[in-house]
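Homework help thread (please don't just give me the answer)

Our assignment gives two proteins as sequence + structure token strings and asks us to describe the second one. The first is just a warm-up. Here they are:
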Amino acid sequence: MAWLQAVREVLRYEWLLLQRHRKLAAAAVGLLFVPALYALIYLWSMWDPTSHTNELPVGLVNLDAGAQYRNRDLNLGTDVLAAIEQHGLFHYQRFSDREEARRLVRRGDLAFTLEVPADFSRRALPGEAPGAAKLTLYTSEGNNYSSAGFARRFAPEVAQRVNTMLGEARWELVLSSAAGSKRSLDTLRTALADLHQGTAELQAGLKKAGEGQGTLLDGSQRANEGAGRLRTGAQQLAEQAPQLSGGLRQVAPLLRGIDARRPSDADLAALRQGTRQLTEGQRELGRGLDALAAGGRQIGGGLGQLKTAADDIPIFGGSIVEGVVPLEDGTRQLVAGLDTAREGNERLLAASQRIDEAVISLTEGTQRAGAAAAQAAARLPEDQRLDSFVDGTRELARGSDVLAGSLRQLATGHEALGGGLAKLHEGAARIGLGLELVRGSLPLAVDSPGGSAQGLTMSVEPVIEVVAPVPNNGIALTPNFVPLALWVGAVMAAFLVHFRRIVQPLEGLPRTAQVAGKLVLPLAAVLTQALLMMAMLVGVLHVPMPQPGLFALTLLSASLTFLLLIFALVRLLGDLGKVVAVVLLIVQVSAAGALLPIQLNDAAFQAMHPYLPLTWVVSAFRASLFGAYDGVFWPQLGVVLAIAASALVVGTVAGRWRVMPLAEWRPPLDIE
């Protein structure tokens, strides 16, 4: 019998089992969909878990009492939780009671809680030591290890966010402090300008005070001279006035002898000249007192301006004001004394004028006495006028005394003015030194860091460049989970035929024909599973496939290889080979690097990694689906096909057939 006829004969007997046992046929059709359904359920459940994290319940507990930092009231706990809620990564729930939130975590109602302690702001704001402030994440790994993993990954993200907020706040304070320093420097420069203006006004006031002091000195000298003459004349007049008055009272009885006894014309001329000199001296004294009063008021005005300017001067203004106060007091005393002296001088001038008039009358009467004694007797002054004359001389004497006292007060005020001006000069000198020191100490400008608080805090931003991009988590799991589903399908396809049994009429056929005939149905099943898997990925999950031909080739090659491996195990170990196939699947899940990078596994799994078929199948899937491994595809597929060929050779050579009588020929599965 030809080899192909032998293969068809073996296949005919296997097909008879399907025809005779409808449930076996139905089971065969059902298992075609198992890998695709298995992959669909798993991948669908894991398709994009990150889009559902906002449904994961997480508790937020803020116990932060806040703190004051550089005159600002801050509560970082409130700001941190508000920023976290705005981000919206999880389904957040606020709690005021920490123990209640922890109880819900232990009960499984919350994935974890984020707790902000009461001293968080107080410890975080100064930044005195790394990690001084703590944020507590409370979770239960026993409830759900994945939820605990979310908490562990969430912790550094929160820490980075908080540190960023703190950096922004601190830089904002630095920038505002720099701006405030600049404003303070500008204010200080303005104040120094005002101070310079005040010193200029002070110097002008000192100049006016010096001029007033010179005028006062001249007036004082003239006043002293006039006062001396006035005092002498007043004393003489006061001494002679009673005698004159008494003589005039007695002149009537003596009128007859007046011509013989009257004074000579020279004496009368001298008397009249003396009264005129007295009147002129009085007027000169009045002019001197007026000049003194003007100088005193000018000094008072200058001192007022000086005091006003000194009030605006920082540091040394108080000393200047203290020096000006005695000057003001002395000036006021001087002006008061000068006013009093002027009043006395006015009275003296009036009295002198009356004396002058009386002397004129006296001299004229005396001169006329010799010619008209009778007329002189009629024209003699009355007693009241004589009394007025005596009173005028006395008042003149008192005025001269007042004038002398005023001049003494003027001398005292002049001494006080000299002392005040000396202190004022000393204060002005100290102000000049202080201004020079301040001007030399001021910086030209305040350097402020450029940029913004956010830019200074986050001046570096990482940019991630991704090669062989993957749209989402479900698509990323496709190269990992599809091979597992195909392996499960291959294991189930192995139950369709007896890999170690053959019916008695086929016992004499060639072994290769027997093997080929046995593999036709399960190979058709696994290849159909692969095509259904691709249809599900494209039509249901909409997995993008840049190279669908290579991906389909990978699916078919993987299904073929997995079936031949199971065939070889069953040929070597019997039905125990199917158990070994399941165990091998479990080992490959961990050692093939399908879920985690192989470098993260134990050393034993890393040692097995290069020799497992799933390792190369996963690599071929990633290369065909994502363009991974720099697009290198054929070496991985070659290794997969080499494993399939090796398994076919081993399965063909190894093991012996158990010949079954035709009457005992039954399906591998008991499905009746």
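The one we have to describe:
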Amino acid sequence: MKKELLAPAGDIEAGYAALYYGADAVYLGLRQFSARATAANFDEQALNEFTAYAHSLGRKVYAAVNTLVQEDELDDLLRTLDMCAKYGVDAVIIQDMGVAEIIREHYPELEMHASTQMAVHNKEGALALQKMGFSRVVLARELSLPEIREIAAIPGLETEAFIHGALCYSYSGVCLFSSLETGKSANRGKCLYPCRAAFHGSCGEKHYFSMKDMALQEDVLKMPVTSLKIEGRKKTALYVAAVTDYYRRILDGKGADEKRAENIRQIFSRPWTKFHFNGKNKDVIDRDFVGHRGLKIGQISRLEKGRFFIKTNHKIARYDGIQIDVAGEEKPFGFSLQMLRVNGKNVFEAKPGETAEIRLPAGAPGLECGWSVYLASSSEVKGAYPFAKPRPGEYKRREEIEVILKVSAGEIAASAAGKTAALTGTFMPAKDAAKTESAVKAAFGKTGDTELALKAVIIDNPDGRFVPVSMLNELRRKLYSQIETMSKQGQMTPVKPRKLPEKAQWLIKTDQPECLSQTDLSRVAEVVVLLDRETDIEKIAALPKNKVRLALPTVCRHPQIFEKQIKTLLGMGYKKWEIGNYWGLSVLPEKGIDLSFDASLYVMNTQAVRMAEACGAGRVCAALEDDLKNIRELSLSSPLPVCMVVYQDVPLFTSADCIRDNACKDCSRGEKWLELSRGGVKYKALSKDCQIMLFDERPLCLAAEAGSVPADYYRADFCHKKYSPEEVKNIFAKLQAFEDAEDCRKGNAVRPSLL
């Protein structure tokens, strides 16, 4: 099977570069609903021209409409999907279930790809999304080759996997760090990457979560997936060209060219890693430095005042960019090479193996012998990737129309695509009716910069009347203008809101049933118990059975570990279940259970509620990063009951990348808490079973605001962190009185909007 090489395009130039250097498909973002909102992205004209050009080459274009959508944005979403349908994009990449629901009903011509933001990390999740109508799933980057093979073997489902580029510390789609800390949501395309920052921890001030870059290189040939994806919608056209060219050659059997790999490192690169492709790997984090490093060309061998010497292993030239690792600094020290000497003589370039003398700029930090030196940009490489592109406007998708022109003594009228334009006047019989017919065809054939193409003109002129060319042109402009501005917007399926309860009920969620021993459960509608592999079923059985709902975790690489638990609990008569990821749909019965969707499934609009209902859910939970305005609107409009979490120790991220100091072979893999801090904020990281979860020391608490939200249920969560029975009793009593817990945080609830 020929594998698709899929390249990124943050703008049209990068898209043209990708096509020129051999991409089989390009993925891009539009001006709204793009998970790379700060990239240039594509407006309507650019989408039209680029898609038409790509299709002329036999290549594909995928549009990333992969952010969460709030209720008041649904009309804008429809306009975005209209563009995708109008210009014939080959697929839409999606995170929000509401987007999928609208496409399924109103844009069946659009193929759906499940974004990596949907956190597809096991076969069960992929199967669930296939059943929902997705033709392709983009796999979590954390997967090993055997795990990728298992998902790729699903009949009739395409798979896409990342092969090169930046890595997130968290599983994509389950990170709330940027959102809750700054209001800039990764799930809304505005991530500020707080994980890249330095934290104080057990090893001092380090970048404990700052990832290296993925570079699978020739291992891509082992990939059994449909599509091999390069990350980089915020990268330059030069970067896209270089990386696409590098992997095109590998896929074409020409091998991994080391010079081309060096070019990529010079253009932009953190240190490279295979990530977990070959199994668990701790060498994935760069604790000491962040950002672009470049190509290592040697070490400082000698220092003199204002200059240093290096025996370079790579050609360097004047005006190249140089970077040096400086101990204690987050980023390398960089400067443009203005003076270069070899053997005491000024030279333009130094060859590999030569000892170069490099002058430092004013204000350079103190350096030491042995420090690493990098070539961070090269004038030669900047000119090494030229690419051809079409003239602006040369390619454009056009809508074919048939124009009907009617001529009478006092009026001419033209109709096409359901629109009509007319002009009044006095129209006399023509001396040569054939010339009038030719003039009509010529006038309406001038489609110019419009997105229309004239298929045919039908002339209804029984008396052979003459129409001046100037009036034909005016009529054409008037008609075509109406067609061009005609809304093609799909219709939103009306949603009938449920009847709101007179008073909301309270829920408690915990992974420690014993912590509820002092809480009056008669005041609780449900106790939601979060399962893990060590859950004691006897402790669940001690709770009032009619009030128990069982919850599956959001991230689970091996769902089979829950098979016995699920079977046992179903056999004991537990019919209420909750899921936090789509894999839960595949391991629970389709019928005979009461299913709820947790906050990690990000239900933020009524169309997402409709999709949840179609999947069997009887209740949804508002997203933890949503704002109060949207939660209120969702609660008022939702056809299903809505739960609002009012207290939780929120996992800011969940990661497969261990930050313990010990080696894997020396690890018990048991529960271990690590303390970190940054900017006066204290965090706790839970390391357990090769998974890391980060928590702010302060819980999220919205009790004071909850009374203004007409939810069906309010929920208090006591998971992950250890709570005593007395703590739970006291905190829960305050929450039920709509009083905040002490020293809490509000996330996006009191911000004016989710940015």
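TA reply:
I won't write it for you, but here's a hint about the kind of observation we're looking for: The chain has a mean pLDDT of 94.
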